[in-house]
Structures are given as C-alpha cells and as structure tokens.
Amino acid sequence: MPCPRCGFQHNCICHAEPQSLTSAAHFVLLTHPKELNKDTNTGVLMERTLPHCRRVIWDRVTPPSELIQQLTNPQFDPWLLFPSDETHPASDFQPTDQKIPLFVILDATWQEARKMVRKSPWLAALPRLSLTPKSMSEYQLRRNQQAGNLCTCEAGIALLSLTNQPQQAAKLEQYFSTFIEVFHAEKSGHTKH
Q1: Between the CA of residue 21 and those of 88, 101, 167, 172, what are the distances in Å?
Q2: What pairs with residue 81 in β-bridges?
Q3: Does residue 17 lie in a domain region?
Q4: 5 within a domain of the structure (yes/no)
Q5: Which residues contact 95 (CB under 8 A, 6 or more apart)?
Q6: Does residue 115 sit within a domain?
Q7: Is residue 111 part of a domain?
Q8: Contact assessment for residue 25 and residue 159, using Cβ atoms and an 8 Å cutoff
Q9: What's CA 112's distance to the chain center, in Å?
Q10: Angle at 154 between CA 68 and CA 170, to 5 degrees
Q11: Which structural domain range is residue 54 located in?
Q12: Nearest Cα to 122, choosing from 78, 89, 87?
C-alpha cells in the first residue's frame, strides 16, 4: 500500500518532511490540470510543507475568482514567477513591511505555462519576477527539459532564499533532494538502500 501522505510505497519519504517551515510569503501553485496526477510533480512538496501555500487549478474558460480577488487585495504584493519578454519586463523583488509577498508559480510544463500566461489576461497584469538559478536544476525526472529551468519546488526554494529565509530554503531543499534521490527506486518497485 502506498503511504497516504507521500504516496510512495517502497520508499516512504515522510521522515524527511520538514515539520516547522515558516514563511511570511504566500505561495499559489497555479496548476495546469494535466499536472494533477503526475507523480513527477514537485509542487506537492511545497503544498505539504509551507504554511501559506495552496494549489489553484488553472482553467482557461473559468478564471479562479477567489485568486483574482486575492491578487487585488491591498494587503498582498502579488508577483508572477515567469520569464520576462519585451512586453513584460522582469522587476526586482523589493520586500515591503506593509504588504505580504504573494508568489504565483505556474505549476506546469514550460509549454503549458506559456499557454496559461497567453490565455489569461489577469496573469499578464501581474508584475513578473524571474529567477537566475545559482546552480543547475537537480530535477531530471521528465524528458525535454531545458537547461536553466527549475522545477516547481526548486522555484519555491529559490523564492524562500530571495525573501531572506535561507534556513527555510535549506529545509525544503533537503526534502526535495530526498524525493529526487528515491524517485527512480520507488518507480522501479524496490527499496533504496
């Protein structure tokens, strides 16, 4: 039987789950429907461990009204984590004491994420934040990955670092590393030693 929390049957990683992550920032995983049942999805690691992290399912026809309301709430400072382009230059994140950072992370393949932004005018209105990874991605669980791109959980780790929470970033990174380390053994049906 798979573990009811982490979903792994042969290599439960619940022992590695950080118990006391904190963050003043809020995180929204705007998830493409195709991501929901993928066992390679790392957004679930953030959703399990970060206190202000929630998943919202993207729908082209029906925009998420609750999220759109939150984005316009003056107590939040919303950001879309997405590469800049000529029309939408990236801004540097500047924390403010008066507002809670609210990071919208597109939880999708890059191809799907581009489509989500293109087909969602309400997303295009958000200031863009792009990350410059300090190291190569550790995520190698899908084909057609482009060098320099981070998976969802790695983006969350980078945002924790960006918001000056290095201990929280390190705890989430350790959990992510455990997930990556045992994933292939788990999927091949044997216990990792």
Answers
A1: 32, 16, 9, 8
A2: 105, 129
A3: no
A4: no
A5: 77, 101, 163, 164
A6: yes
A7: yes
A8: yes
A9: 15
A10: 115
A11: 22-81+98-129+150-184
A12: 78
Q: Would you write out the chain's pLDDT as a tens digit for each of its 193 residues? A: 889 999 888 899 999 999 889 999 999 999 999 999 888 889 999 999 999 999 999 999 999 999 999 999 999 999 999 887 778 888 888 888 899 999 999 999 888 999 999 999 999 889 999 887 666 656 554 455 554 578 899 999 999 999 999 999 999 999 999 998 888 788 888 787 6
Work out how many domains the chain is built from and give that number: 1
Reduced 3-state DSSP string for 113-160: HHHHHHCCHHHHCCCEECCCCCCCCCCCCCCCCCCCCCCHHHHHHHHH
**Residue listed under structure tokens 């934040």:** 129
Residues contacting residue 184 through CB under 8 Å, at least 6 positions apart? none
User: Could you report how far apart the first and last alpha carbons of the chain are, in Å?
Assistant: 20
